[in-house]
Amino acid sequence: MAPPGERELKILELLSDGDASTQREVADASGFSLGLVNAVVRRLVKTGHLKIQNLTAKRVRYILTPKGIAEKTRQSCSYVQRTVKTLNTCLDRIGQIIGGEIRQGRRRFVVVGEGDIVNLVMVALELRAPLGIHFERRADLKQAPLDETTCVLDCREPGDGGAVGISVLNELLTASRSAAGRHS
Questions:
Q1: What digits encode the pLDDT tens for the residues 104-127?
Q2: pLDDT tens for each residue of 25-75
Q3: In the structure, how many helices (H) and strands (E) does the chain have?
Q4: Please, what are the domains in the chain?
Q5: Which of 9, 14, 79, 131 has a Cα at 20 to 30 A from 98?
Q6: How far apart are alpha carbons 51 and 33 in whole angstroms?
């Protein structure tokens, strides 16, 4: 479930963009329960972020107040900052993994998988290309055989045939859990 600030942001976005006009539509579009949407909307009205305009006895329109627009902007900026920080943290960790392999003499890297993690790994490798490394991206490991001088950076999700080489996702999750443990 989304953290509290992200819930309010999602509901404010849906109501302000006109993607949803009723609490049920907000619940359907957001994936939140109707009860949660009701509680959040009531809190947003109480705090002055939303205003209710009665259209009929059973229909209302939700209008973002200037305070609501400011809050939506603030939360959007905060979300972008957290996302960029997370991406940089992941990129740093991937760089540490690659750096360790380079220090062990590996100069050839094979990136296996698809998706966002692969894209981050490719960026990290491209940043290290001046170090004389070679790398390629593969959807799977059925192509050319690998030798001990090759480092496989496996970006597939668990259950996609078992990790080969270094499971990047596992490394990122382990680093994330370690960091969370240090901050608690």
A1: 989 999 999 888 999 999 999 999
A2: 999 999 999 999 999 999 999 999 999 888 888 888 888 999 999 989 998
A3: 6, 6
A4: 4-64 (1.10.10.10), 85-183 (no CATH)
A5: 79
A6: 21
